[in-house]
Every structure is written in structure tokens, then in C-alpha cells.
Amino acid sequence: MATETIPLYYPSLSDIGWISDSLQKADALFADFLVAEYSQSTLYPGQVSSLTYIMQQGSGDPTLTAENLENALLEYFSRYFSNVTCNVTYPGNQQSSRVYLNIALAFEDPNNGKTYSLTKVATLQDSKVVAIENLNNYGT
What we know:
- There is one protein chain.
- By secondary structure, this protein is of the alpha+beta class.
- The protein has a single domain, classed as Nuclear Transport Factor 2, Chain: A, CATH 3.10.450.
- About 25% of the residues lie in helices and about 30% in strands.
- The chain is built from 3 helices and 7 strands.
- The strands form 2 sheets. Strands 3, 4, 5, 6 and 7 form a 5-stranded antiparallel sheet that branches. Strands 1-2 form a two-stranded antiparallel ribbon.
- A hairpin with a 6-residue loop joins β1 and β2.
- The relative contact order is 0.16.
- The mean pLDDT is about 85.
């Protein structure tokens, strides 16, 4: 039985090229997750992680969207890191048409043994992403 290895580099189509820095890799993964489309691959159907697809599946239910987002990010980041934990929370009783989701990821890069934290706040309005903000991202 073959053991899967976690890739050392993440291929970026930007001018950065191949990314090896853990936080840059995580940030690129998250950025690609935001712009990906679920049906963009005919070779790997159902294997593309996509925020827009998750929002469509949640159909206006922020609690379901948060749960599906948490599961998708956990699976997606586990392809590149080990010991991944993901917590997506929806602070209820929001009084406006904007929905705020708090996204907290923690992971270990097996290539250097360091643990990292990535925290973002996603602002959604009318099932569209309005803003993504970084909060205290660090590695130890």
C-alpha cells in the first residue's frame, strides 16, 4: 500500500511561481479556493473545492454554509498540510443583510514541523463574497 506524501511546493500561476513558504502556500490555497468553480474540471469531477458552490448548496442558510465550508476547507488543506483543524463559526442574530463567517485554520507543515494559524473573516451579502479579512496569522 502506497503512502501519500504531502507536496513540498504549491504551484502558483502568479509571478511567484512555486510556493514553499507555509503561510504563503496557505494564503494561495485560500485565494484559489475563493475563485475556483466546482465544475471547472471534467477530469476530476467533484474534486474542486469552491466557495461559490458551497454558498449555492447552503441556499441562504448561514449555519449550513458554515458547516459545509468547514468540511471543505478541512479536506482541501489536508492535501497540503498535516494535523489540520478548521473551525467556521457564524455569529447568529446578525441584523443586516450581511453575513459574517469567522474562519480559523490551524495546521502543521510536515516539511518543517512548524504549526501555523490562519484566521479570516468572510463577509457575505446576498450570497456574494463582499470582503475577506486576515486576522493575526502566524506560525510557531
